[in-house]
Design goal:
The protein is an alpha+beta fold. It is about 40% helix and about 25% strand.
């Protein structure tokens, strides 16, 4: 059956089932994205056979997808291959002012997720934009021109095989077995874990899970898990599995312990204005010492993260309480000074 007869067969089937509305899928979006870059690969013929081999589906499936995109006025056929429809490159032809402003604002969300670029999370968010408004998949100009943006951030390096296995186990609430080497330790230990949640925090992906042997809920660097196997044994997901419920009001990222501590830190200079502009804990309070100094007090069970915050402020931050934290800070600063002296 030649191309025109196959196309007529698709249209005939559509009429017979009374199809009136195009339902976009990831395949539709992928075809648009590929055709968007087609001019850079003039030697390639982007016909139904090409996409059939690429997507590994039946040719009739490709013809249906192509017909959907024609009905949306996004593609056309020239010289027996698919090309993007001409005459729809200007955003003024596609959206009115309000619609463009709304899309530009939503695009800011993509900017907030820029540090997750290359992860399945980012890819899914990007496809969601395209599924909501297919014309954007043809040209991302409107999204890339967003006036609300985030400066370049560090990107995550994710073991995709681990990511996929963990997500699969979480979907069925199934236990996993894996080997894990804890930070600063050489010993690798076999663990049986109940995967609760995946956390993305400042360039690292963590698995929040129950460790059967330790009988505790702990964080594991996803990339450091080796030989993950999904067992047939299910676990019961606790009602308070969400990591945010374990931070006891702290807002400093992926670290938690059972011990809640009241911190008091004196901050000086420009940092005193900066620290007031952020919420570090639900119960934080500020006490002005003078025009340039402020004391922040708050509760947290995130010891390591509080230390990281204080050290990041350098000489502008001085912890006052608790004593154990002050002593640890002094020890760290002394070690840094010793390293410089050497």
């Amino acid at each position: 059956m030649n191309f025109s007869k196959q196309l007529e067969e698709v249209n005939k089937n559509r009429r017979s089932i009374g199809k009136t509305e195009v339902k976009m899928t990831n395949r539709h979006i992928e075809m648009l994205q590929i055709l968007r870059d087609a001019p850079e690969h003039s030697a390639v013929k982007y016909n139904s056979k090409y996409f059939q081999n690429l997507f590994k589906v039946a040719n009739i499936t490709i013809l249906r997808i192509a017909q959907d995109l024609r009905e949306l006025n996004l593609i056309e056929t020239k010289h027996q291959q698919y090309v993007l429809k001409e005459g729809f490159d200007e955003w003024d032809e596609l959206f009115d002012k309000d619609a463009k402003n709304q899309i530009a604002l939503i695009a800011g969300i993509k900017g907030l997720l820029q540090q997750y670029k290359g992860t399945p999370l980012f890819d899914n968010i990007e496809k969601l934009f395209y599924l909501i408004e297919p014309k954007i998949a043809k040209s991302s100009g409107l999204i890339s021109s967003a006036r609300i943006a985030v400066p370049p951030q560090m990107e995550f390096n994710i073991n995709l095989n681990n990511w996929e296995k963990i997500l699969k186990a979480m979907e069925q609430n199934q236990k996993i077995k894996a080997r894990y080497t804890a930070p600063y330790k050489d010993s690798e230990i076999q663990r049986t874990l109940w995967p609760y949640q995946v956390l993305l925090d400042n360039g690292t992906v963590y698995l929040f899970a129950r460790d059967e042997k330790k009988n505790r809920d702990l964080l594991y660097d996803l990339n450091k898990l080796e030989g993950i196997t999904i067992t047939n044994e299910e676990f019961e997901l606790p009602e308070d599995f969400d990591f945010t419920k374990r931070c006891k009001g702290g807002r400093l990222g992926a670290f938690s312990s059972d011990k809640v501590v009241k911190y008091k830190i004196e901050v000086t200079g420009y940092a005193s204005y900066w620290i007031k502009d952020h919420k570090w804990a639900d119960d934080q309070t500020f006490e002005d010492v003078d025009d340039e100094d402020v004391i922040i007090s708050f509760s947290s069970c995130q010891f390591a993260k509080v230390m990281k915050l204080v050290l990041s402020l350098g000489s502008s931050a001085k912890p006052l309480a608790p004593k154990s934290f002050v002593d640890k800070w002094k020890k760290e600063v002394t070690a840094m000074f010793k390293s410089i002296s050497e």
